[in-house]
Amino acid sequence: MDDETRDESDVVFEVRDLEVTFGTDRGESKVVRNVDLDIRRNETLGIVGESGSGKSMLSSTLMNAVVEPGETSGEVTYYPPDDREPISVLDLSESELREFRWEEVSMVFQGAMSSFNPVKRVRGHFKETLEDHNRDVDAGMERARGILEDLYLDPERVLSSYPYELSGGMKQRALIALSLVLEPEVLVMDEPTAALDLLMQRSIISLLRDLKEAYDLTIIFITHDLPLLTKLADRLVVMYAFDVVEMGDTQDILYHAAHPYTRMLLQATPDLNVPVDEMRSVEGNKPDPVVRIPGCSYHPRCPMADESCKQEEPPMVERSPGHRTSCFYHDEVDEAMPLRSDGEGSR
After folding, report:
1. CA 282, 285, 288 angle in degrees (round to 5)?
2. Phi/psi of residue 106, nearest 5 degrees
3. Distance (Å, rounded) from C-alpha 201 to C-alpha 217?
4. Which of 102, 173, 235, 289 maximizes the CB count within 10 A of its CB?
5. For 21-57, how does the pLDDT look when each residue is reduced to its tens digit (9 = 90+)?
6. How confident is the model over 206-238, as pLDDT tens digits?
7. What share of the chain is helix, strand, coil (3-state, %, to 5)?
8. Are 147 and 140 in contact (CB under 8 A)?
9. For residue 240, which phi and psi values (nearest 5 degrees)?
10. Per-residue exposure over 295-323, b if at least 16 CB sit within 10 Å of its own CB, e if not
């Protein structure tokens, strides 16, 4: 599938024909399949799908961080903001990757506690990162204090604390600050709010909006929680069965979703303003990564599927400018699977 053509200066990551494969006792398992995607500079891109849909693996390929025995094929090209040549990420050496992963692209993982050494003060994590990348420690620590303040934390209290002395929300914000201390261009966030309560999730989302503007960031936010992205993401990528099945501007996806799976995700979103009988679960089982069924990967769970869906794989097509989907019946989905009747309130 082809993403929309963009001016090269507007693209920070270009992904083409990307696949990730693992060999298993049961056979070859593809956990990312034939993905083409452009990520635009200074946007917030949300990648959403059920657990096991391939979204975290896709994000790992952007840093060439797929663990063995996984094998990555295709092209991942990073375009620096200056006059440097484009970087082929999958061709970087180990030493080049070490620099790339912190100085160009940084990642915030789910579960901040497991990202910190519990017997080292937070200050030590910042200093170690700066020293490992041959940065001026004094200048870097001053920057760290500024980032922590921007995250509404007391820098001295946080830096002098051990991780276990901080709340979950404080640890997560400290981890975000650590990921920004080397001034990366891109921040990849893999389920960063999953372990936090609802109020702290909303707080983190609000802070990320402010950080994006203050630090001129491109943010890639991976989550299974679609409502979490509605106030943050400029564009959404929806993954199912290790493929991208829909992509487009957030508002287009929310109000004019073209793929039945995306509509099922929206209908399954809890909402106190919606009658219970209008809410639907995403029925059926997640696909097996080893057994690739013929036709559309979603057809066993799709209420619109017919014989053609069971036999042929739908191509990625443009439904409207910038809004693409892989469904034979995207023009009929409004009638067959109408979104909730409450309109704007449901999302």
Report:
1. 135
2. -125, 155
3. 20
4. 173
5. 998 777 788 889 999 999 999 999 999 998 888 998 9
6. 999 999 999 999 999 999 888 888 889 999 999
7. 35, 20, 40
8. no
9. -145, 135
10. bbbbbebbebbeeebeeebbebeebeeeb
Number of neighbours of residue 246 by Cβ within 10 angstroms: 28
Structure tokens at 61: 């390929």
Question: Can you list the residues of the chain whose pLDDT is less than 50?
Answer: 1-6, 342-347
In terms of Cα–Cα distance, which of 102, 109, 33 is closest to 72?
A: 33
Return the residue matching tokens 């809410």: 279
228 is written with which tokens?
């979490």
pTM of this structure: 0.89
- DSSP class per residue in 224-263: S-HHHHTTT-SEEEEEETTEEEEEEEHHHHHHH--SHHHH
Cite the beta strand spans of the chain per DSSP E: 11-24, 27-40, 44-48, 71-78, 87-88, 105-108, 186-190, 218-223, 235-240, 243-249, 317-320, 323-325
First and final C-alpha spacing in the chain: 28
**Residue that has been written with the tokens 């099922």 in this structure:** 264
Reported as half-sphere exposure (CB side, CA atoms, 13 A), residue 275 has a value of 5
Q: Angle at CA 165, nearest 5°, toward 201 and 146?
A: 65
